[in-house]
Amino acid sequence: MLTIRELSKTYANGVHALNRVTLDIPRGMFGLLGPNGAGKSSLMRTLATLQEPDSGEAFLEGPSGERIDVLRDKDAVRRQLGYLPQDFGVYPKVSAEDLLEHFAVLKGLTDRRQRRETVEGLLQQVNLWDARKRKLGTYSGGMRQRFGIAQALLGDPRLVIVDEPTAGLDPEERNRFLNLLAEIGENVAVILSTHIVEDVTDLCPTMAIMNRGQVLLTGKPADAIGALQAQVWRKQVTKATLPDYEARHTVLSTRLVGGHPVIHVFSAQRPEEGFEAVAPDLEDVYFQRLRLQAKAA
Ligand code: ADP
User: What gap in Å lies between CA 207 and CA 230, rounded to an integer?
Assistant: First the structure.
C-alpha cells in the first residue's frame, strides 16, 4: 500500500531526524512507536508532502493500483491523503459543522448537496452529530481529536496519518478515539504515530519501532513478543540495590509496585536467584530494542 525506501533527513541544526528509513505499510492500522524525538513527526510530515527528505523514496498505491511517487507527485498524494497533525488547531469560535463544511469546500467538494451529505455523514461517524452546533472552543480534548479525524476523512482518503493523537486524552476518550481509528482502518491504511505502547498493543496488526531516526523493528506485535519468550525475568528489588542490578543486568524497565521497584531483565537464562520468568509484552519488546540500540551506539 505504502512503500518507503531509505528516507533520510538531516535538519539544518545537524539533527539526523531520519536515517535510511525503510518500511512497508499495508492496509489497516499500522503503529509507529517511538519516544519523543525519534523522528516520527518528521516521517509523517514527509509522507504528508509537507517537507522534503534529503534522499530516499516513497510510493503510495493509488485507487487503480497505480504507483504514486510521494515525493514528486504531491498533488496526487494529497488527493489520497487524510492527515491529523500533532498540533491540530481549531477555530474556537466556530461550530464543528461550519468548520467541517469550510474544510470540505477547501477539499474541493463543490456540489452543495453532496457536501452537506458528506459533512453530516462524517459528523455521525465520529459521534459529534449531537454536538455539531457547539463552538469548537467548548469541546473536550477527545472531541477535538474526533473532529480532527472527521476533517482527515474528507475526500475519502486511502491513507490516513495521525500523529500522536492520544496524548493528553483521558482513558475513556482515548478508548473511544482508538475504536474510531480501528473502524476506519478496516478500509484504508492508517498510520498511527505514538509514544504510548498500549496504543499499538490494543490496535495495530503491524507496527514499527523507531528511535533516533532509525527503524529498530518492524512486523507483527505478536511475533516480536514471541521472539522474547522465556527471556524476560522479573524481580522485586529495593531502591538501594537498584543501581547495582542496572549495572549487572540488562534492565528493561522499572516499575514501582506498592512502593518497591519491580524490574524486568532481559536474559537468555535466569539471571540469578530470586528472578521469576514473565510472559513478555510489547513494552518489553520496545525497551529491549531501545537498549540494543543504545548499546550499539
Ligand atoms: P518525534 O515526532 O518522534 O517526537 P520529530 O520528528 O519531531 O520526532 O523530531 C526528531 C528530531 O528532529 C528531534 O531531535 C527534533 O528535535 C528534531 N527536529 C524536528 N523538527 C525539526 C526542525 N524543523 N528543525 C530542527 N530540528 C528538528
Answer: 22
